[in-house]
Amino acid sequence: MSELTATALRLGLLVLMWVFVLSVASTLRRDIFGTTSRGRKKRSRERSASAPAPQRPGHGSTPPPPSGPPRTLVVTEGSLAGAVVALGTVPIMIGRSPESTLVLGDDFVSSRHARIFPGQNGWMLEDLGSTNGTKLNGNDVTGQVQLGVGQPIAIGRTVLELRS
């Protein structure tokens, strides 16, 4: 075997070793820190076909008076205060998981915490077996409960409500 071939094999082995080390480091980083923001944007674009993504209203906007059926879910307190999710026919999943419709980065929120979905008589709220529970008007939610316009829904440090 010539000297050139031996050197090329050594360099090839060195490159393969570094590719392996960097892929292990990348996997560990994802496991420790979660998905990157690019991944969430991509998932939110995929999800936008089935459910509307949260949007921030303009500054100084005031909520309309409660009248008629609810059309939006508004975050009134918490890190996403002011975020608005339009209500359609698709259930809204709430939690820390990037696959949720409304992703809450709160330590008191489970990855699949609660869901809001259309029922026969309007919108319903269901706690999905979360660790810290869900509250509606200050009361613990067990099973499925009917939602009304303006009722505060507390999930961790975040408060939401339906608005028309």
Automatic annotation (TrEMBL):
Region (Disordered) location: 36-71
Domain of life assignment: Bacteria
Presence of keyword Phosphoprotein: yes
Composition bias, Low complexity: 49-61
InterPro entries assigned to the protein according to its UniProt record, in alphabetical order: Cell_Proc_Reg/RNA_Proc (IPR050923), FHA_dom (IPR000253), SMAD_FHA_dom_sf (IPR008984)
A Pfam family per the record: FHA
Domain FHA: 92-141
Keywords of this entry: Phosphoprotein
Gene3D superfamilies linked to this entry: 2.60.200.20
Name of the protein in its database record: FHA domain-containing protein
Source organism (scientific name): Spelaeicoccus albus
